[in-house]
Amino acid sequence: MKKRALSLVLAVFTGLTAMASTPVDNEVKQVKTTESTITWKGYKVTGSHHGTIAIKEGSLIFDGDKLTGGEFVVDMPTLVSNDLEGESKGKLERHLKSDDFFGVESNPTSKLIFTSVKATGKNSYEVTGNLTVKGKSNPITFDISIYGNKATATMKVDRSLYDVRFGSGSFFDNLGDKTIYDEFDLVVDLVF
To answer: H-helix or E-strand containing 72?
Structure first.
């Protein structure tokens, strides 16, 4: 009887130990789109414009407390300018949504899929992913920080890689002060 009890205790202990050492499967955490924001800023010779755009859906993948992946879809028709008002605001927003820029009628979403995640500190990671804008995909590398159920990422996007040509010195000569720089900034604040 004692042998049986000892065998049972050893079997239970061995099973619990095996369970404790088994790696946790990746946990997918959905992004709360109404609480998350993407802020953009574009630059031209004579100044800049900034605004926001909404996340349609997204998730981050964790192994325990370590970020391992992610995927996001951006709702391009929600692109707005926050630094202008009235007619100027409407004109800029319509132009940014037109085929001169992001062509949102035929390309209503943009997508980012993480392809590699490398820890650079306790809560910091360097992420490489495939960014798809206007049907064109290119690799992009950026930094992201995770704190509890929040994350912040900053990135520079080169619009010329996605055939967004209007006012670009990469495609047109002699633009002078009408030049719009190719790189624009994104600051992404996520709640999940």
So the answer is: strand 66-81
Sign of CA dihedral 72, 137, 47, 83: negative
Q: What share of the chain is helix, strand, coil (3-state, %, to 5)?
A: 20, 50, 30
pLDDT, mean over the chain: 90
pLDDT confidence tier of residue 24, bands split at 50, 70 and 90: low
Note whether 44 and 183 are within 8 A (CB). Answer: no
Q: What are the structural domain ranges in the chain? A: 26-191
8 A C-beta contact, residue 37 and residue 16? no
φ, ψ (nearest 5 deg) of residue 164: -100, 95
The percentage of residues in the chain with a pLDDT greater than 70, rounded to a whole number, is 88
Domain 26-191 belongs to what architecture?
Beta Barrel (2.40)
